[in-house]
Design goal:
Elements lengths: L24 E6 L5 E5 L6 E6 L36 E3 L5 E6 L11 E5 L4 E8 L2 E8 L7 E6 L5 E5 L4 E2 L1
Antiparallel strand pairs: 1-2, 2-3, 3-4, 5-6, 6-7, 7-8, 9-10, 10-11
Amino acid sequence: PAPGNPFIGKSEYKPEIYAYGVRNPQGMAIDSNGNLWDVEMGPRGGDEINLIQPGKNYGWGDVTYGIEYSGDKVGQGITQKKGTEQPVYYWDPSISPSGITFYTGDMNEWKGNLFIGCLSGEHIARIIMKDNKVIGEERLLADQKERFRDVLNGMDGNLYAVTDSGKLYR
């Protein structure tokens, strides 16, 4: 179990449970303040960025901004419910987020921004954040028509991305 896990010693949860209601996390990263973030692939629409906090309920399968692939509602079709956390940001239509990283390289304009590889969206999303809120989004390399699987910081200060077709971008 993670240190400080709120479920340690509580019989209704396994001690390894840190948070729940997480649908389909595709990437996780820790920011410069030690906060844990994830991107989740929603059903049809409703992909999310979440700030994961210990003991919190992120709502899946009670709340979502997406719908079933069939077009039906997920559960009651609600987007908010008491006791569940709202995403920090969500997309509809879906971008199919994949690997993520917080930029730590030498470009001051990008420092601390969250970068997300997008599969069906075929781009890299640069998410500009302030005080744990999204204040901007830039779509990079969309002209390449590639499914971006992962993005990471290189030890050389560059940002790297890999695609499903096997291409490596720097």
